[in-house]
Each structure stands twice: as structure tokens, then as C-alpha cells.
UniProtKB/TrEMBL annotation:
Transmembrane segments: none
Residue ranges constituting the HTH araC/xylS-type domain according to the UniProt record: 157-257
Keyword DNA-binding appears in the UniProt entry: yes
Superkingdom of the organism of origin: Bacteria
Species this chain originates from: Methylococcus capsulatus (strain ATCC 33009 / NCIMB 11132 / Bath)
Classification via Pfam families: DUF6597 (PF20240), HTH_18 (PF12833)
UniProt xrefs under InterPro entries: AraC_XylS_family_regulators (IPR050204), DUF6597 (IPR046532), HTH_AraC (IPR018060)
Region entry Disordered, spans: 258-281
GO molecular function terms listed in the Swiss-Prot or TrEMBL record: DNA-binding transcription factor activity; sequence-specific DNA binding
Keywords tagged on the record: DNA-binding, Transcription, Transcription regulation
Name of the protein in question: Transcriptional regulator, AraC family
Source organism phylogeny: Bacteria, Pseudomonadati, Pseudomonadota, Gammaproteobacteria, Methylococcales
Record's compositionally biased regions (Basic and acidic residues): 261-273
Length: 281
């Protein structure tokens, strides 16, 4: 039976971690694959057990146990032959650099086994602990302790953080040149600082942010044409092209717009239709 629990991070990890998700049997057999859509966050997933995950990303496949997913601009499709149980750490956009430093760019657009980034024996020991622990809260605390012991750069790059927040306020519509000027930086300096802290360029970050926020409007408008204009796209075709490129399908295929009395004003994806999708804010 699948179960999901979300825990906030401790104050020491809060600048870098937005949530710890404890899950049991996340990959239900009837769902097949689990699709992870591009998000501005990065993720570390610690698994219990010996069932590896196969991640397919832009026609390339990666097989890992516990793994790290850096900044992504395209969807991931995950498959596992067994129950996918463990703890997934959702990091802030700048959070991964606290553990990997400037190496965040090396894990962008791929999924890397945690054994290639942390001491393999320590990762295996953590996985064994998670397997033995039955309490979701205890599992979350176990992962917190692991991360606290591996904080390499416990200070946030405030300029990169400010850039992320400024882009978020405009859903990615802020021109990069103006962003650099607002932060009193040259454009090249902004790009370099941003890449070192986030693992991608401000332009790619804004592109993902814009599309992510656009699909969250699907329960607030009656057509994708309205959503396209509300999100600042030239037209519906522009939005569809972006969604097909980054999400791998049309917006209507992923997030059907409710009709009539089925409209939900929450702004959340329709889980009854998109139960295999993972997208979060």
C-alpha cells in the first residue's frame, strides 16, 4: 500500500531544503512509469531496498539506486521493478550547491548515483538505516542527519538567490539584461554566478519557471489560448511548442482543462487524470 508524508526541514537545512518527502511503494504497478516534469528545484532521492530506478531523459537512460537529479529542462520518466520506497529531498533552486559546491553543473540534465557524489559506504549505511526504520518521521530525521554532516558550503549565494526570487516574481518574464542591471551586475557576471550556484543559466531557469507556472493556470481558465496570453506567450502555438519540447507532450494531454462544474480553483494539477506526473512548487 502506497503512502506519502511531507516534512519541513530543520532550521539549519531550511535555506537549502524545501521539503523531505517520505514515500512507500511510490511506483504502483498499475501506473507503470512515473513522469517527473521540469521544476526549478533539484532532488536527492535515498531509497530503501535494492530495486534500482531506471531514468529516461531525452533518449538517454540512467540506472541508479539512491540518486541526485540536478536542474532539469526536460522531463524524466522513472521506472522500477520493485517498490520505490525511501526519502526524496526537494531542495531549493540554490540548495544543491551547499552539498556539491560548483559541481552542481555536472549533475544538470542527468541523474547521478549518490555513490558517485558521497562516500559509497555512507550511502549504503543510510539506505540500510532507512530500510530498518518504519516511522516516516524517523526516516526523514535520518536523512536530515546525513545531509547536515555533509554541508560543504553552508552559506547561500545571495545574489543567485535574489536572481531566482526576482524571476519567480515575474514567472520568468523578467529580461535577463534587466535582472543583471537590477542586481548591479554585468550580464556575464550574473550568468557565471547563477550557473555556479544553480547549475544552469538564468535564461533556461526562466524558461522552465514560465512553463511550470503556466500549466498551474489550467484550472483557472477555460482554454489554453487564454492561458498562453496570461502567461506571456505569443500565442497558444508558442505554449504548445514549449510544452512539447520540455514536458514531452501537449499541455492538454498532460493537464486536461476541466469542463463545466468540474472546475477546481485550487490551481493544482488534476491528480485523477495526471496521477503519474510529478510537478511541484
Amino acid at each position: 500500500m502506497s503512502a506519502f508524508h511531507s516534512f519541513p526541514p530543520s532550521p539549519l537545512l531550511a535555506p537549502f531544503v524545501s521539503a523531505l518527502w517520505v514515500h512507500d511503494d511510490l511506483m504502483k504497478p498499475e501506473l507503470g512509469t512515473c513522469t517527473v516534469l521540469p521544476d526549478t528545484a533539484t532532488y536527492i532521492c535515498f531509497l530503501c531496498g535494492d530495486h534500482p530506478i531506471q531514468a529516461t531523459h531525452r533518449h538517454r537512460s540512467y540506472t541508479t539506486l539512491s540518486g541526485v537529479s540536478g536542474f532539469q529542462t526536460h522531463r524524466f520518466d522513472l521506472e522500477s521493478r520493485g517498490a520505490m520506497s525511501g526519502v526524496t529531498v526537494r531542495l531549493t533552486p540554490w540548495g544543491l550547491s551547499a552539498f556539491l559546491g560548483d559541481a552542481v553543473g555536472a549533475v544538470a540534465e542527468i541523474r547521478v548515483d549518490c555513490r558517485d557524489l558521497f562516500a559509497p559506504a555512507a550511502v549504503r549505511e543510510l539506505e540500510d538505516h532507512l530500510f530498518r526504520l518504519k516511522s516516516p518521521k524517523a526516516r526523514a530525521q535520518c536523512v536530515e542527519n546525513f545531509l547536515l554532516a555533509r554541508l560543504r558550503h553552508p552559506r547561500v549565494d545571495e545574489l543567485a538567490r535574489a536572481a531566482c526570487l526576482a524571476l519567480a516574481r515575474t514567472s520568468g518574464a523578467l529580461p535577463i539584461r534587466k535582472l543583471a542591471r537590477d542586481l548591479d551586475l554585468g550580464e556575464r557576471t550574473l550568468v557565471r554566478r547563477f550557473q555556479n550556484a544553480i547549475g544552469t543559466t538564468p535564461k533556461k531557469y526562466a524558461r522552465v519557471l514560465r512553463l511550470r507556472d503556466a500549466v498551474y493556470l489550467h484550472n483557472k481558465f477555460s482554454s489554453w489560448t487564454e492561458i498562453a496570453y496570461a502567461a506571456g506567450y505569443c500565442d497558444q502555438s508558442h505554449l504548445i511548442r514549449e510544452c512539447q519540447d520540455l514536458f514531452g507532450a501537449s499541455p492538454e494531454a498532460l493537464f486536461p482543462i476541466p469542463r463545466g462544474g468540474d472546475t477546481d480553483k485550487s490551481g493544482e494539477p488534476d491528480r485523477s487524470v495526471s496521477s503519474r506526473l510529478v510537478i511541484a512548487r
